[in-house]
Amino acid sequence: MRVGIIFGGRSGEHEVSVTSAASIFKHIDRAKYDPVPIRIEKDGAWSFPQREPTASNVAQAIAQARAAERDAATTGDPALGTLQLDVVFPVLHGPYGEDGTVQGLLEMAGLAYVGNGVLASAAGMDKSIMKILFEGRGLPVCPWHGFVRPEWDRNQSATLQHIGALGLPVFVKPANLGSSVGISKVKTREELAPAIELALQFDRKVVVEAAVTRARERLGRRPADHGLTLVSSATVAERARGYRTRFVVRRGNTHHIVPADQVDWMDVADNYLALHVGSKTHLWRGTMKQAEDELDPDRFVRIHRSAIVAVDRILTVRAHESGGHVIEIKGGVQVRSSRQYTDRVRALLR
How far apart are alpha carbons 192 and 74 in whole angstroms? Predict the structure, then answer.
């Protein structure tokens, strides 16, 4: 089977693509596959190198490119249809490779290829579009703000104000690159503008994301009905006895951070949890079980199937004549506990 391996490309991740292709050429099973190198230069020119890529890291790729600006042993102006390829393996990183452009070209040429189709590639490449699609399906997404260069050039102060609502630290990223090039972790406000200018060197669109300090690992199984069932969920930091320190809530089109230590109590509200902070209520897209598993049990206690209270907000606990307890919280709020959680409430009285 003849496999056309396309590498290089016009994006800022050109050298990363070269090293990825070199790894494929090194490890591909030659007894089954006949790999054909197809290189795209930074200026968009295509060529058929006679020598396969060998760089094992980006530094080697850059050094080799400087030593030979263009592989002399190539055939110019290649036509994919003349190669008699069975399948094409795009090993391109970033724009003009992972964003559906090459996929569309291969679709038009009638060539089979490895990986996602045009729509999935385009949506997955653009981080802002990807987040909008995720949010539209109700998937949790960390707080973020996206904008394009004209917005930044026209009113930097307004853009910085929107980003300020995310808090610090944040990650500043080109919307259409991978996970390394042009990305900055910003810990102070002074670092924000330079990080944005750096990202704009690689893309006209920028995405700024609130840092996720406790990334989650989820394990699932797919039963016969093809619905995904969650069987295990653990926060990486919880293994070191870390717990949720904040909730990300949404008001309108913006996201806000509610520190966990500000929450007085919480209860179920339709498909959300209502987080009560003084006289204010914030809606968090999560479950009671999820909150119970993630919060510090020394600071929060579940007293009902639909209620959790902060221990340091409790003023009084008294037995109720029909069973359970009545718990008074700061602010005069009274929450009724259920019998099945009596032992937990009694532990508060010790």
Answer: 45
249 touches 314 (CB < 8 A): no
Per residue in 238-276, pLDDT (tens digit) is: 433 456 777 877 766 666 778 888 899 899 887 788 899
pLDDT band at residue 66, thresholds of 50, 70 and 90? low
For domain 2-124, which CATH number applies: 3.40.50.2300, 3.40.50.20, 2.40.50.140, 1.10.1740.10? 3.40.50.20
DSSP-derived 3-state class of residue 82: helix
DSSP calls for 114-157: SS--HHHHHHHH-HHHHHHHHHHTT-----EEEEEHHHHHH-HH
Q: Answer yes or no: is pLDDT of 171 > 80.
A: yes
Q: In angstroms, rounded to a whole number, what is the distance separating the alpha carbons of residues 22 and 58?
A: 11
CA distance 303 to 312: 14
- Which residue type sits at 342? T
Superfamily in which the 243-349 domain is placed by CATH: LytTr DNA-binding domain (2.40.50.1020)
pTM: 0.56
Tell the residue number behind the tokens 């990300």, with chain if given.
Answer: 248
CB 128 within 8 A of CB 148: no
The reported pLDDT for the residue numbered 237 is: 41
